[in-house]
Design brief:
Length: 200
């Protein structure tokens, strides 16, 4: 079975039909426990992934913002060399984030790049602006490398924005950041993670 979607080149307006086998979408799922967060946290990890192509298990960059006591105490980006089976760089993705095969030639693989980050996430609150995307990248790639999954609670600031700012025409991170006066270099993973932390 095939799941279809659309991919838009915002520079030209061209629309491309994208097909994905349903198996990959099912594999993105993981065990979920209903444990709602009732008060916005002051301690959390904000994360953002950039991918080499449309496959969720092709991360080429991760950005992390560490928040403690309501203050950002650390923020960094780490390049990732995609797994050999998913290492092709789609021009569409490259146009978005600017990362090329040459950029990640000497970068660590996912398991090396994420080792300490996974420790930060475990038993913490994980925040992303599009949690469905970033969480699927994380869990799909953990499965690919046969790594254990961290235990964490999650908050999606995109969904939060829809609730708090219902009149915004778009809730993309660049739009929300501009509305809130947050400086952003969009699709730089560290900048996206930092902006996400500030939105929350």
């Amino acid at each position: 079975m095939v799941k279809c979607g659309f991919q838009i080149d915002w520079r030209t307006g061209d629309v491309q039909l994208v097909e994905n086998e349903m198996k990959e979408w099912r594999d993105c799922s993981h065990e979920r426990i209903d444990n709602p967060i009732e008060i916005l946290p002051k301690d959390f990890i904000a994360i953002d992934f950039e991918t080499a192509n449309s496959k969720r298990c092709s991360p080429c960059s991760v950005g992390v913002a560490v928040v403690k006591g309501g203050r950002v105490v650390d923020c960094f980006e780490r390049l990732i060399k995609p797994h050999k089976n998913y290492s092709n760089f789609d021009p569409f993705n490259v146009d978005i984030h600017g990362i090329t095969p040459e950029t990640v030639e000497n970068a660590p693989c996912f398991s090396e790049a994420m080792q300490d980050i996974l420790s930060m996430i475990d038993n913490n609150i994980l925040v992303a602006h599009n949690m469905v995307f970033d969480c699927s990248v994380l869990y799909r790639t953990l499965d690919l490398y046969e790594l254990p999954k961290p235990t964490c609670r999650t908050i999606c600031t995109c969904n939060l924005s829809r609730i708090v700012f219902p009149k915004l025409l778009s809730h993309r991170l660049n739009i929300v950041s501009d509305y809130l006066g947050i400086t952003l270099s969009h699709h730089n993973a560290a900048s996206d993670a930092l902006a996400c932390a500030k939105v929350l």
